[in-house]
Please model this.
Amino acid sequence: MCSDTDSNKESPYKEILSPISSLKGVGKVITRKFWKRGVYTVYDLLFVLPRSYQDRREFIPIHEIKSGDTALIKGKIMEIRRVRLRYRTVLEMLIGNEHEIISARWIGASLYLYRFKKEDNIILFGRFRASPKKMLETYHPEIIEDGDEYEIGRLLPVYPEIEGISQRRIRRIMMDAINRFIQNLEDPLPTKIREARRLSELGAAIKEVHFPSESRLEDLRIRRSPAQRRLIFDEFFMLQLTLAIKRSKTSRKKGIAFGVQGVQELYRFLPFKLTGSQANVIHEIITDMSRPFPMNRLLQGDVGCGKTVVALMAAWLAVWNGYQVAFMAPTQLLAEQHYLSTLELTRKMNLKVALLTSGMSSFADGVRDGVKKGDIDILIGTHALIQESVKFHRLGLAIIDEQHRFGVAQRAILKQKGISPDVLTMTATPIPRTLGLTLYGDLDISVIEELPPGRKPIQTKLFHERDRGKVYKILREEIEKGRQVYMVYPLIEESEKMDLKDATQMAEKIRGIFPDLHIALIHGKVPLDQREGIMEEFKEGAIDILVSTTVIEVGINIINATLMVIENAERFGLSQIHQLRGRVGRSAYPSKCLLLASYRKTGEARKRLRIIEKTTDGFKIAEEDLAIRGPGEFLGERQSGFYQFRVANIMRDAEILSEARKEAFGLVEYDPELAYRTYNLLRQMFRGSQRGMDEFVDVA
Model:
């Protein structure tokens, strides 16, 4: 990033990068336990942040404690005894005075508890509840002994559990780390930014987060204290700095300046009129493609809004200029659907379009040869496009559909098939703004906000197993109107591990229930030629009910299909149900989506189903889904590489994210290489932070 010789200097963070074993009380056994949690250095330890706090600032009189309270108390042991409870014996201490008494109990009590005796003074911290004896009781309270004075009189941190290390020991080790290493810790954040945003210094913020002295407990619990705000800002700032530098590098690369003269001619090939939103987005893309540096744009829109047509307009422009186009989709079925749609739309344009997937062994060599010679204009396919054997004659545009389902490395390989090609990525999953700033912050974003005219909202209704007859009645009524039906299942075949409906068995059952109807089964294991035949029959109206797995989630456009039945709906995420639901409602015919759910649902599943019933707004659904599941799960694949924040939360901290983004992008605009001497430490911290981000953001 910079040729400055400071990269070879000794890191000013050398001391804080000392091994965890350098701390007091951390021997070989404790060191290995920390290693298991990914804590290797003092720096790693300092960012094991408290998950909550205990209020131990004051002793609470027993008569002021209410059932459910957590409190610090002191008193005299009035009685100590063993009590038989059902099948176990517990140690009980009655603590207080002649006026007020509480019961403290320990099941399987440690031997050291037996050294306490009647009349001893004792300090306890625990959660209290009402007992049948009309006194407060607490189970397994913590005993504060002589020498543990630092455990009282303050707000005390509670850390994520580390197997084999008690909270008390973690706190002692953390206090040693802070006392020894924080005082001389340099702050990498430029003073100008820190002062403008009224942020604490880094060392002071770290100390305050672990052992608060000025923060309000209410603020700490909701991650709103000034110290926490500083650490949240830092996490967002480093990520946004990475995105800003990547964007800056891309904007300075030499790319292809596509000619746009006569581009209006392309519109006459369309069999329908574009929406205003589609036209605006096409204008943004064409403007990008005309510039002499690589386009890097995300095309976002709800299901059925017409993203594929917009992408094809960009593809036509590239071919018009003598370049080839690669169109990569995450699944074979989706690639096939894009191929068929493209063939239909380009039939009059004399464009050569080919399909390449891993299941095409007999035709693959011919396709690869045509691509290499330049005989094929648009190559559509799956991961097969990034195989080493695929060589383009003159790649000018790479289109990546559902890009979050590809890894950074896979996307990079496709881009390397050409010399700085333009890149258009697409997603049918509406991305909430906060996630967009985090995940796609280096991209220009276009959003198609309109659905084609004449589309009617899809009516969604939740049913349970007892309602199966009602669902089948609605299904029959829809088919009698001349319409068609999707029935979607979470599994292809029966599973011994999961009590779920599967597509294969249910297809047979449905044939028995509706013997007069034409029913077909489609899933990922059906051979390509058979799938094509089934989809063609369904499109022509020869199939009444298409039984399927989620292979039909995106890219399929059957105008006459007006009913979607989703079995075991509780097993699907909000965004996935919304995607599936988008297969119907693609015409002026009224459409329905029936969710057939099991009675055995988690609270989260019930919440998801209620949300999907109430709204068809994809962006609102995406916001709710993100709030429920978090970014990694929202994206649909844990292996998507989503960057894991230590303290920041993109939903809760959206305002801080926007501030950090503004400062990071402003800094890079002022100094793209972070070359000024005042940024030496920031530059080194940035390089270190990339190790955790390189799977999330393509920083190359």
User: Anything to note?
Assistant: Residues 226-252 form the longest helix (27 residues). The chain has a mean pLDDT of 86. The chain has 21 helices and 22 strands.
